[in-house]
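Worked example 2:
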Amino acid sequence: FPVLASAGYADGLVTMLSESSSIPADKIGEIEVPYMGRKTYYPGDRDFDPWTVTIMSDENWMIRDAFQRWLSALNSHVGNVRDMQAATPAGYTTDALVQQLSKLDLPPLAQYNMRGCFPTEVGAMELDWGTNNTIQKFQVTFRYQWWDSVSVNGPTTDGDAGPLEG
């Protein structure tokens, strides 16, 4: 969490209570150009989809409260203003790390650094007495600027892996 949303133990709890996420899509837009009755395609701009994390709620709501403080700092409910600590991207963004773990005691199989993250939605949390033997969960949707990938074979993005062969 950035400083404006820090909640003491929430930083460590989010690591332990994040139930699921996804490895981000890797895609480039396309530019369609008509040519003599046919369509030809060229690579366009890179596009990054929103990223969603499912989090198990802790009993004292530290994680959910931290995310709600973060959103409120970006745009408050009543005043419709941004907190001074969130005046610049350095104040309201953070980097997040997604790791694909092995069942063996090995280093992560892959790591993805989500750069410049900020939440855009803290999802609903069901309040239902009819659900037995379950833990309350909620989703947080993030926007980020880009992601970097590091696999077991080394960096795989931004040309860090060296020249392509073949």
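The beta strands are 18-20, 27-35, 38-47, 51-56, 94-100, 110-122, 137-143, 146-151, 154-155. Confidence is low (pLDDT under 50) at residues 159-166.
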